[in-house]
Specification:
Layout lengths: L4 H64 L5 H28 L2 H23 L5 H12 L12
Length: about 160
């Protein structure tokens, strides 16, 4: 491969384009991953809390809840607790499965890693510490794990 300023510049621009695409991907998917994770954690915790109250407190617990909300019957308390626990449990399961079905956590981590590698590569390339053929090999190694990241269209 020819070692020229033009070749070095083209590779540098290619690295910039890929970094833009990766940053765009991370900007979209990291919040989604965090949101799904939070829904899963909170939903599981609330479902557990709703079932733990009657399990630990027994009829005293249900009587207290009935009194707080001025309900006519204990069965209404039980129905509400069971329904709310089911809703939170299902939402936690769905959030977990949505995240896992798309391997969202692994993809975001791979994109973050590739972005860091490209940043180091760009610095080495710009300061002339790296030959273009070596930089090209490192570029290919860095972007291979993030083939799922689409390119950002040029404007």
């Amino acid at each position: 491969m020819e070692e020229s300023a033009d070749t070095r510049q083209r590779l540098s621009e290619r690295i910039d384009q890929k970094q833009q695409a990766i940053r765009s991907y991370i900007g979209r998917e990291r919040p989604r991953r965090n949101r799904l994770s939070n829904i899963s954690i909170v939903g599981s915790a609330l479902a557990a809390a709703l079932t733990a109250g009657p399990a630990v407190g027994g009829t005293g617990f249900t009587e207290a809840v009935r009194g707080i909300f001025s309900l006519d019957d204990d069965s209404i308390v039980w129905r509400f607790l069971c329904l709310a626990a089911v809703i939170f449990s299902v939402s936690a399961a769905l959030a977990t499965n949505f995240a896992n079905s798309r391997a969202l956590g692994e993809k975001v981590s791979a994109a973050e890693s590739a972005n860091a590698q490209l940043e180091g590569l760009q610095l080495s390339l710009n300061f002339g510490n790296l030959a273009v053929p070596d930089a090209l090999k490192l570029y290919q190694q860095a972007v291979a794990p993030v083939a799922f990241v689409d390119e950002v269209p040029l404007r």
